[in-house]
Amino acid sequence: MPQRVEIVAxxxxxxxxxLEIADxxxxxxxxxxxxxxxxxxxxxxxxxxKPLIDIDIILxxxxxxxxxCPIIExxxxxxxxxxxxxxxxxxxxxxxxxxxxxYLCPESHDTHRRRMLFRDHLRTNPRTAAExxxxxQSLADQFEYDxxxxxxxxxSFVNAVIGRAQRExx
Length: 170
Hints:
- By secondary structure, the protein is an alpha+beta fold.
- The protein has helices at about 15-30, 60-75, 110-125, 125-140, 145-170, and strands at about 35-40, 50-60, 80, 90-95, 100-105.
- Strands 1-2-5-4-3 form a five-stranded mixed sheet, with helices on both faces.
- Strand 4 (about 90-95) and strand 5 form a beta hairpin.
- The chain starts with 12 loop residues before the first helix and ends with a helix.
C-alpha cells in the first residue's frame, strides 16, 4: 500500500532525534564514518516537512559504502537501493516516529554536496524556505499517495535553488 505524502509543522525534536540516530550509526560503523549530516526539510528550523529524518552518512570510499550496507540492513533499515545516484545507497526505517531515511555516501560525492547546498540555502534564506514549504504543501495535496511524483515535481525548484546557491558561492 502506498504511503501518504504528509507535510507536518516543524518539530524542534527532529534535530535532537537526528543526534540520537547519528550516535547509533557511529556505533554501528565505528571505523568508517567520516561524518553524518542532517539533510532534507527536517534539518531546516521552522520548515514544515514530511516526518522523516533524512541523513547522509559519509564514508571514505564506494567500497566502504558497500561494506556498510549489510550492517545498516541488519540494524533494521530497509534497503532502498541506489535510487538516486551511483555509489549512494538508501535505507529506510519506518518502524519509528519520525521515520528515518539514511544514505550511505562516499566522500566528496556531488549528490551530497548538492544536498548540503540546498539545506544551507534554505536555512539562511527564509523567503526561499517559505516558497519551498508552500510548494511542498501544494504538491502533497496533488500527489497524496504518489511519493515519487511528489519528489519529481519538486525537482525543478530544488535544482534552481542549488544553482542559485552555487552562484552565490563564487
